[in-house]
Design brief:
By secondary structure, the protein is α+β, with helices and mostly antiparallel strands. The chain has helices spanning 2-20, 76-85, 98-105, 115-121, 135-141, 165-185, 196-209, and strands at 29-35, 38-41, 57-59, 65-67, 91-95, 110-111, 124-125, 127-128, 150-153, 158-162. The protein has one domain (2-209): Class II aldolase/adducin N-terminal domain (L-fuculose-1-phosphate Aldolase). It starts with a helix and ends in a 5-residue tail after the last helix.
């Protein structure tokens, strides 16, 4: 049942990424850990609007393909690195939502300026330096596994993770929402930072909601 639900979610949220315009061509990838040594992911070279449950690929946590017609995405190693570092993570979603991606490409991280966002994402969504695909990209992402549930990657959009595909998608959605608001607010000086005492209270609420992540 866990794998069946994950497959349904991977198909659904792949389609939503496409419908929102957060991916183009073969951009983006999604995965879900369905057992201790079993991960289901979207296939390479496939537009997210065309992803079906029958097209999904299954691997072990080392990346060895167990089933599937196509191969795994080129960034799949980053998904597996998240799973190895975070036993609590059940899904990873990667996409290129325009406003958040533009922010990252500009070399800027995203500071949470809405109270709800601090509880959901923490005080900031950090910027991961762009690195060559493979071990260098994993090494660049490594310092951000602990304490964060979403990151901007310079030149490579957003990665978000969570308990399941829905939660990971919602976190990515919130990152894009914040980036959109920040962009629209920029002509008026940008959103002001939250007061430090309020941030402390919100982070305490985050620690209670997510004790292993704050």
């Amino acid at each position: 049942m866990i794998e069946a639900r994950a497959r349904e979610a991977l198909e659904r949220y792949s389609g939503l990424l496409a419908a929102r315009g957060w991916v183009a061509n073969h951009d983006g990838n999604l995965s879900a850990r369905v057992a201790s040594n079993r991960v289901v992911c979207t296939p390479t070279a496939t537009h997210k609007r065309d992803v079906t449950q029958g097209e999904l690929v299954v691997t072990d946590t080392g990346g060895k393909k167990l089933s599937g017609r196509k191969g795994t995405p080129g960034e799949y190693g980053l998904h597996l690195a998240v799973y190895r570092a975070r036993a609590d993570v059940g899904a990873v979603v990667h996409a290129h939502p325009p406003f958040a991606t533009a922010l990252g490409c500009s070399g800027r991280e995203l500071v949470s300026f809405l109270p709800e966002a601090v509880v959901s994402l923490g005080k900031r969504v950090p910027l991961v330096p762009l690195a060559a695909p493979g071990p260098a990209a994993v090494a660049a992402l490594g310092p951000f596994f602990s304490g964060f549930d979403a990151v901007l990657v310079q030149g490579n959009g957003v990665f978000a993770w969570g308990d399941d595909v829905e939660q990971a998608f919602l976190r990515l959605e919130l990152v894009e929402h914040l980036a959109t608001i920040a962009t629209h607010a920029a002509p008026w000086g940008g959103p002001p930072p939250l007061a430090s005492d309020l941030v402390d209270k919100l982070l305490e609420a985050r620690r209670k909601a997510f004790p292993d992540k704050a």
